[in-house]
TrEMBL record:
The lineage of its organism: Bacteria, Bacillati, Actinomycetota, Actinomycetes, Pseudonocardiales. This is Cytochrome. CDD domains: CYP105-like (cd11030). Coiled coil: none annotated. GO terms for molecular function: heme binding; iron ion binding; monooxygenase activity; oxidoreductase activity, acting on paired donors, with incorporation or reduction of molecular oxygen. It comes from the Bacteria.
Amino acid sequence: MAYPDGHVGWLVTGHAQARAVLADPRFSSRYELLHFPLPGFEELGALPPAPVGDMSGVDAPEHTRYRRLLAGKFTVRRMRLLTERTERIAADHLDALRRGGPTADLVRDYAQPVPAVVICELLGVPYADRDSFAGHAVTVTDVEAPLADRGAAYTALQEYVAGLVRTKRAAPTDDVLSDLTGTDLTDEELAGVGTFLLGAGLDTTANMIALGTFALLRHPDQLDVLRTDPSSVDSAVEELMRYLSIPHTGVRSALVDVELDGRLIAAGETVTLSLQAANRDPLRFPDPDALDLRRNAAGHLSFGHGAHQCLGQQLARVEMRVAFPALLRGLPSLRLAVPAEDVPLRPDHQGIHGVRRLPVSWDEP
């Protein structure tokens, strides 16, 4: 496969082959070794190393150190508490939707703010700061915002998280950042990890809630499954993850020569993983283009696989298991307010697939 910068590497589309690459330490995630398949990066030249705290762009042993420190922070107890808080957060936003109805942009009014407030809970952002913090977080991921505004919002978030780290060191509370102040991470590393968790946990979940709702509204038979059978929510979330595959592309670089499926991938060559294609591989998922909420979609690659598998996947599942049923219960007549073909999608070159806006309407009581 030819990359935008002229590099010639590989494209992997099969589920078994993508899983093999993701699990193989001979393939590196280091940004400075990668050639990106999406347009726009070629103008930047060689990419710099990952910022401090960004676990996605480093390999072992640095990645192992971060992951070991973070893995124990997503405990069953914390997930249970966050489930209860997510239920309250979703209910509050649905109340606001109904008050402002009977139309809304579901991205702006539900899909983005719910995970933004949950991230505030996870990181221990004080209540008084949450509107400002969440506003900056949403701006950073807004593909329609001017680049200067997104850059300014990112800088503001970094500065805020750095200050929050200092506050947590002085007076810890019951949250992930406070827990991490008891490790050997420096203030710079803590601030980097906090910013990384924000970026990894907000845009992805927000787009899953919005795009997942869009998919359900376009498949009313499947929407009825979720609405009438509450026990289907776990399989529904996994199937929506597989079917939509919003983190659509993975990238790795071969550190040494590797033979994969009878092909020799030479050291230094970049391998692009089409997670969307892998999640619709008919050898792994029969009738893969059908949305079937009763399907056993275990083994999908939307959370990745191997050493870099999404650390916050249980939190993302908590948010989706709450957000979808709450929305369907709270607004039983929910429907698209525009034809499906008029719903604006995010640009193809964005790393996360999703909708920019989702105009919906419902019947007032």
